[in-house]
Amino acid sequence: MVVTGRAVLLALAATVAVALSGLIGAEVTAVAMGVLVALLAVDVVLAASPKAMRLSREGDTSLRLGDSATVSVTVANPTRRNLRGSVRDAWPPSARAAPRRQPLRVAAGERRRVRTTLTPTRRGDARAAGVTLRSVGPLGLAGRQRTLPAPWTVRTLPPFHSRRHLPGKLSRLRELEGQHTAMVRGQGSEFDSLRDYVPGDDVRSIDWRATARGEGVVVRTWRPERDRRILIVLDTGRTSAGRVGDTPRLDHAMDAALLLAALAGKAGDRVDFMAYDRRTRAQVRSSGKGSQVGRIVEAMAPLEAELVESDPAGLVGTVLGTQGRTRRLVVLLTDLNAAALEEGLLPRLPALTSRHLLLVAAVRDPAVDRMAAERGGADALYRAAAAERTLGERRRVTAELRRMGVEVVDADPEHIAPALADAYINLKARGRL
After folding, report:
1. List of residues 6+ apart from 402 with CB closer than 8 A
2. Does residue 66 sit in the same domain as residue 117?
3. Tens digits of per-residue pLDDT, 355-409?
4. Residue 156 above 60 pLDDT?
5. Considering its fold, how many domains does the chain have in total?
6. What is the pLDDT of residue 286?
7. Tens-digit pLDDT profile for residues 119-144
8. How far, in Å, CA of 335 to CA of 13, rounded?
9. Cα(143)–Cα(133) distance, rounded to whole angstroms?
């Protein structure tokens, strides 16, 4: 049973009337209370039963972070009484459901649709908590309330902000493959076509036989090998939980991984994806040529950083054990944390680099660079010294990785995605992929 504001006002009005009449007594008070209780009871009895209502849902099931989705609930009234009251479609606070409560009128034998707009503030799955129906009697004094299950899940996908860099990177790929007017000579082994020589072409690309048969100088164009295998590994361990700016390091790494996956798919390469800390959290295996971005986005959506130390031995073993003997590019998105890498990953790298080409990409915190540049009082100098020590360890780890034949990309959140894409293009241009 629920009591409306109208019942409260009626009780207040009755109290004031009794007080002003001067007939304050137990009998008068009891009669007034009895009448009010009777009216409330009648209203509750005459109100339509929320339990008897039938609910169904439809609407969006996924959206990108920053967008809005619409989910509707259809309330069917199979009873002989009209339903008059309100409805609340409850969602987790991070889903930002609006409006919180809506008026509802459903005549007997009819149905009404109520829409709710969701604007989530975080990735992952948001599940409906239930639909609360409040049915008020004809007097509007009291009624019944019931929360009914109406399951629905809306998945919030990563926003993929780095998508804006894709056209420029694709243009570089076309140049590399000899498909653009400003063609360059790639170092791949697949012959593509012949064309006229233009100033700036590498003289080693001149086809002397074709030149002798024609009237001008002709050059060969080459394209990098296609159908290469790429494995993107996302570290979801403790270090990925650190915030760089207002966003976890894991989300920045996801954005870079999506741009690389989209670019590699356009280049004709096969892209696999894996998220790992102490076990495999998500995995996408390429089913053929073409973009895997949609599947990777779906796999990334529910991922959260795990507050555990990543297991480098397990990671290396999983990569070597599940990917066969085909040489591929393994892209590891992690943090260049000196303690974690020196004690865990570095001793196990030879087993990985002997069979695959490894590229390590890390998100650099620009706040540390700003701290290193601080000058002033004692506190500022201490912060600068601590930041400089952190940067020094980062440079040392980077140098050690490169000494072992590992490609390293270390950039701030704004540039990590395009820098990783550039590293991939450069590897293809140098014939290493």
Report:
1. 408
2. yes
3. 999 999 999 999 999 999 888 888 888 989 999 999 999 999 999 999 999 999 9
4. yes
5. 3
6. 85
7. 999 999 999 999 999 999 888 888 89
8. 68
9. 10
Task: List the structure tokens of 314.
Answer: 């397990």
> Does some domain include residue 171?
no
Structural domain harbouring 194: 178-223
Same domain membership, residue 283 and residue 214: no
Chain centroid offset of residue 239 CA: 18
Q: Give the pLDDT confidence score for residue 105 in this predicted structure.
A: 94
Distance CA 209, CA 225 (A): 25
Phi-psi region of 243 (alpha: psi -120 to 50; beta: other; left: phi over 0): beta
d(CA 14, CA 274): 70
Q: Please check whether residues 197 and 237 belong to one and the same domain.
A: no
- d(CA 345, CA 219) in angstroms, rounded, equals 45
Distance, CA of 204 to CA of 196 (rounded, Å): 14
Q: Are residues 83 and 187 in the same domain?
A: no
Amino acid at 174: R
When pLDDT is cut at 50, 70 and 90, the band that residue 246 belongs to is confident
* 270 φ/ψ angles, rounded to the nearest 5 degrees: -95, 125
C-alpha–C-alpha distance, residues 292 and 257, integer Å: 11
Rounded to two decimals, what is the model's pTM? 0.79
Please tell me the distance from the alpha carbon of residue 170 to that of residue 159, in angstroms, as a whole number: 20
DSSP string covering 78-107: -SSS-EEEEEEEE--GGG-EE-S-EEEEE-
Structure tokens at 30: 């009891």
Strands 111-118 and 69-76: antiparallel
State whether 266 and 344 are in the same domain. Answer: yes
Residue 66 has pLDDT above 60, yes or no: yes
Write the CATH number for 84.
Answer: 2.60.40.10
Kindly give the residue spans of alpha helices, DSSP state H, lying in 141-286.
166-176, 208-213, 249-266
The residues, ordered by sequence, that sit 6+ positions from 23 with a Cβ below 8 Å of its Cβ are none
Give the model's pLDDT for residue 187: 43
Beta strand 153-157 with 124-127 is antiparallel
Sheet holding 97-98, edge to edge: 54-59, 69-76, 111-118, 97-98
d(CA 319, CA 345) in angstroms, rounded, equals 13
What would the mean pLDDT of 216-231 be, rounded to a whole number? Answer: 72
The span from the CA of 419 to the CA of 417, in Å, is 5
User: Mean pLDDT of all residues in the chain?
Assistant: 86
User: Which residue from 67, 10, 14 is spatially nearest to 43, judged by alpha carbons?
Assistant: 10
d(CA 341, CA 349): 10
The CATH number linked to 421 is: 3.40.50.410
Using only C-alpha atoms, the chain has a radius of gyration, in whole angstroms, of 33
Is the domain of 198 the same as that of 284? no
